[in-house]
Amino acid sequence: MLIHLSDGWSVVVSVVAWLLIGLVSGYVLHRADVSRFEHDGRLTRLRRWEDGGRWYQRRLRVRAWKDLLPEKGDLFRGGFSKRHLRNRSEAHLRRFVAETRRAELVHWTNMAAGPFFLIWCRPAIGAWMIGFGVVAHLPFVLVQRYNRGRLLGIIERRERRRAIR
Q1: By the 8 A CB rule, do 111 and 129 touch?
Q2: How far apart are CA 60 and CA 57, in angstroms?
Q3: N vs C: which end of the chain shows fewer Cβ within 10 Å?
């Protein structure tokens, strides 16, 4: 702990910090050109065990709870809501996939900020803040990966059908 605050003040500062981290990471990644999210990176690449997103439904029943999470992809002007598919055009599906990558990176960024709280929180409270970051953001990461797997499956099936014709 570099800054000595009482437990009460460290919690207050942490609440404000979580809000600012969420807003800043969301805004910075919102401002990034969508082309940055057209392909997977090491972090966002779906793994074989995820089975095209189906693992999240089989093991975590993600469809039962995903709609309970808030969707703020359109919080900033020009943003993209991922609450519903607006249409099934290939362009829209590809944009949706890119936006799942953007959202996933926002939530990974927020989770990664957890250790930052140890600057002013004593270790026990810092551990709670790190845990909060994981509990608050991991469900969003899981939903983005689930949705991306499903959408990529639709796109791949369409591409296979076109190749056969």
Answers
A1: no
A2: 5
A3: C
